[in-house]
Amino acid sequence: MSGENEIVASAKTAMQKTINHLESELSKIRAGKASPDILNGVVVDYYGSPTPISQVANISVMDARTLTVQPWEKNMLQPIERAIIASNIGINPQNDGNIIRLFLPPLTEERRKELVKKSNAEGEQAKVSVRSIRRDLIEQIKKQQKEGLSEDAARDYEGQIQGLTDKYIGIVDKYLEVKEKEIMVV
Asked: I need a labelling partner for 36 at 20 to 30 A (CA). Which of 47, 149, 151, 161 fits?
């Protein structure tokens, strides 16, 4: 009976990883306010190795629409500027020779709707992932049932996994609701 609870525990772990990934992806979707998270995932060539910008520069928020990127080494200004342009986040860096400023344009209604769509697509991907985890684990339980797991125990574990699935789908929906409000507030 020891292996079955591991299945439920692995469901929790895998589903939580999905939520963590969703949080990370949603943080990259700009909601009108300047946030260093916008640069998450942007990597710069640091002496031949791809390195996150946050590890070669100080990123700070000047005001609601402006970020500054202050490299720790002045020779990193150009590579950082190129990395930001290449990342396709829709912001043109302004390099004054000492610091890079990112001015975030106000979001148009159309752009806000696009961002909500993008958020919803990330959410849908997370839901698919959660359901896929459920399917895989239910298959594992059915296998264990053939190997001697009782029908009652199998039903119990399937119920627990379905409960986790419902819980995590609900968490995804809450994240999307919060993100949509954040994006649509002008």
From this structure: 47
